[in-house]
Amino acid sequence: MKLCRFELSSQPGVARSGIVYGGKVYETDGAQPIAVYDWNQARLLNPLGSPPSVRLFDLGQAGAFSGGEGHLPFFYLNPASCVEPFGVVRLPSFSPRLRVWPCLAFAVATEAFQADVDTAAEVPLGLTLGVALRHGGPGQGEPMSGRLLDAGFAFGPVLTTLDELEETIVGDAEGPIYKLTIVARVNGQTEQTWVTDDIPATVAQMVSYASHSARLKPGDLFLATMGPLETHVEHGDEIQVACDRLGALHIAVS
Q: For 190, what's the count of Cα atoms within 13 Å in the CB-facing half-sphere?
C-alpha cells in the first residue's frame, strides 16, 4: 500500500490523507475510501506531516560497522527545515551552493526504547525516498556545524508499506535486507546510482541503534544515505531521487 498526504488544487492548504493506487489518489478516513481524485486534482505532500525528529545516517562512512557491533554515524536535521515534494529550498546569502545526499527513508510507526534488532524490525511503518541538503562545501571556510545542516530536506512522495516490499527482500541478517535501486539526478543528468542492499546496516539495525540513546516516537523519520553527490547544486537547479518501487521525489533550489 502506498500511503500519502495531499491537498486539492481547488482547496490548497487543507491536508488530506489517503492512498495512491492505479494512477489515482483515494482519500480515506483511516478505514474506508471517501473520495477518488485524478492526478491533476491533487498535489502530493510529504506522507507524514512534520516528523518529531529526523536522523540522517551517512552510511558511506560506516565501514567499521558489521555484525551488529560498531558505530552508526548519524546527524539530527531540523524538522522545521522540511520542504514538501516538488517544493523549493532557498539559498541564504552566505551559501551559494549546496551538497546533496540522496536517501532511502523510513518512518517509525510505534514507540521504541532500547529495542533489540528483532523488536526493531517491527517498528518501521514503510519506506520512502529522501534528500538532505547541506550548506557550503569544501574550501568555504566553515567547519561542520548545525547551521550547515539547516539547509533543508524532503521526503516522499508516498510511503510504501513493508508488506508491499516483501519480494524485494534478499536476506534477513539482523533484520530484512531490501534490494532497491535509487537513482539521483540533477537537471535530468544522472549523478549517483546505488542499491540499498549495499547499505552496511539494515533498517532494523538503525532503529535499534537509535532507540538505545533516545525513545523513538511515532512519525520519527530516518534518512539513510551512501554519501553526497559529487556535484554541488546552485540557484535554479532541480534534484530528483527516484526508485521504481517508491516513486520519484523532486525538489528545486532557488
A: 8
pTM for the full predicted model: 0.92
- Supply the pLDDT for residue 61: 64
Q: How far is CA 193 from CA 61, 101, 131, 175, 182, in A?
A: 17, 12, 14, 23, 6
Complete domains list, the chain, with CATH: 1-45 (2.30.30), 46-253 (3.90.850.10)
Grid cell of 221 as nine digits = 523519520
Interatomic CA distance for residues 236 and 254, integer angstroms: 6
DSSP 142-161: --S-GGGGGSEEEEEEEEEE
Q: State the pLDDT confidence band at 70, using cuts at 50, 70 and 90.
A: low
* DSSP track, 65-119: -BTTBS---EEEE-GGGB--TTEEEPPPTT-SEEEEEEEEEEEE-S-BSS--HHH
